Amino acid sequence: DVWLSRHIDIKKNRELTAFFERISRFALSLELSQVTTAEVVKTTRNMFRYGAPGIVQGGCAALTSELERRLLERGAEIRLRSDVMQILSTDGRVTGIRVRNKSTGEESLLHAPLVISDIGPRATNALLNNRQVTQAQVLKKQVTPGDVQEAIGLKVHILSDVSLIPHKGIMYCLDTKRIAGMVQPTNCDPRLAPPGKHLLISHQVMQSDNIEEEKELALGDLRMMFGETFEKHCRVLTMSAYRGEWPVNRVVQGDDVAPETALQGLYLVGDAVKPSGYLMVEGVAQSVNQFLDLLDAIEQGRTDGPPGVPHIRRQGGTPVPVRNVVPPPSRLNALRWLWEAPGNSRST
Ligand SMILES: Cc1cc2nc3c(=O)[nH]c(=O)nc-3n(C[C@H](O)[C@H](O)[C@H](O)COP(=O)(O)OP(=O)(O)OC[C@H]3O[C@@H](n4cnc5c(N)ncnc54)[C@H](O)[C@@H]3O)c2cc1C
């Protein structure tokens, strides 16, 4: 917001300021002032280049089913309902994990030279010390001045008899008290609601600790935006709040860490390890691609640095070509997208 005020007259361009503010609140559960300018510029640039975000046909279940199918096809073994209790190591090298089957309580040791953790730096570090981070610890409010910033959000799921948003994109709400943006996922996949009904999701940053008041403000915004239609045709299914690292947002956007850890053979991926400029699950996917490129380089002897923290060797000051991290599409895509919008969001 400081950067915006330096470059534009905020009083005359309230809508533009509100637009960036709402993107930050909707996508990151953060105020604009909590995100660095560099990160906002990079994510906005990527947004224009890649185009509007989409909704997966079949929802998240379709994605996990497809992942499972591909893994099983390649002979992998998936252990569901199992908790990793400890990450094992000897002489600075990872050697495996201790796992507990949640159904039977049975524990077993799995030996491996490579362990990739998707649960964030704090929980991974705890497992190294034979501890598990509990939900209560995660939800404990950070009180130390200058300590890490928290992402605090409230989400409302609504079932409607009538369509309220005529496109597949995000409807940013610029003149609301709380709701930053809304989507109607059934525009992409009607199976996400009973036949003839529409599923809507709104999202906002919680600006106080008073959750009941925050819920009322959300309902007030919905009444303001949709008037009588909201009262007559809509039913609120759930209103759910989340805070800090629970269930995700393990670090604020832009404070992500590198995949390497101090322990040889132990790497991080996922939320908290996103490469700069990528939001949410796109960032999670890119963190995996980033790790795969590092793994390729290790196997081909193209890394520098101490054994625990290798990095891909640069050739003459430039990084060597990688094959997993997808390079950003051409800048022309941004112009094409802007030219076609909002038509593209109707057809994609
Ligand atoms: C309310 C909400 C709405 C969101 N909406 C969107 C959206 O619309 N679009 C979008 O792109 N992103 C969205 N996100 C963000 C998205 O959910 C995250 O970016 C993503 O889930 C992070 O993926 P991950 O694999 O890094 O972590 P997770 O999804 O948290 O996966 C980690 C997994 O590890 C498991 N685990 C933890 N500890 C252990 C252990 N000791 N042993 C074994 N397993 C363990 C957990 O149970 C979990 O299944 C939303 C997040 C929230 C909270």
Summarize the structure.
The chain is an alpha+beta fold and about 350 residues long.
Any overview of this molecule?
The chain is of the alpha+beta class. The chain contains eleven helices and 14 strands. Strands 6-7-8-5-9 form a five-stranded antiparallel beta sheet. A three-stranded antiparallel beta sheet has the order 1-2-3. The radius of gyration is 22 Å and the shape is globular. The protein starts with a helix and ends with a helix. The mean pLDDT is 87. The site of flavin-adenine dinucleotide has 14 residues, from strand 1 and helix 9.
Tags for this model:
348 residues; alpha+beta; globular; single chain
Which range best describes the helical content: under 10%, 10-25%, 25-40%, 40-55%, 55-70% or over 70%? 25-40%
| Tally of helical segments | 11
The largest sheet, given as strand count, sense and whether it forms a barrel, is:
5 strands, antiparallel
Distinct small molecules bound, one entry per kind: flavin-adenine dinucleotide
Strand segment count: 14
**What is the 3D shape?**
globular
In whole angstroms, how far apart are the ends? 31 Å
Q: What's the overall average pLDDT, rounded?
A: 87
Q: How are helices and strands ordered from N to C?
A: HHHHEEEEHHEEEEHHEEHEEEEHH
SSE order and pairing:
Layout lengths: L1 H6 L6 H15 L8 H14 L8 H15 L8 E9 L2 E9 L5 E5 L3 E3 L2 H9 L6 H5 L12 E9 L10 E2 L8 E3 L14 E8 L5 H16 L1 H6 E10 L22 E3 L11 H20 L3 E2 L6 E2 L1 E2 L2 E2 L11 H10 L2 H5 L1
Parallel strand pairs: 4-10
Antiparallel strand pairs: 1-2, 2-3, 5-8, 5-9, 6-7, 7-8, 11-12, 13-14
Helix pairs in contact: 3-10
The protein binds flavin-adenine dinucleotide (FAD).
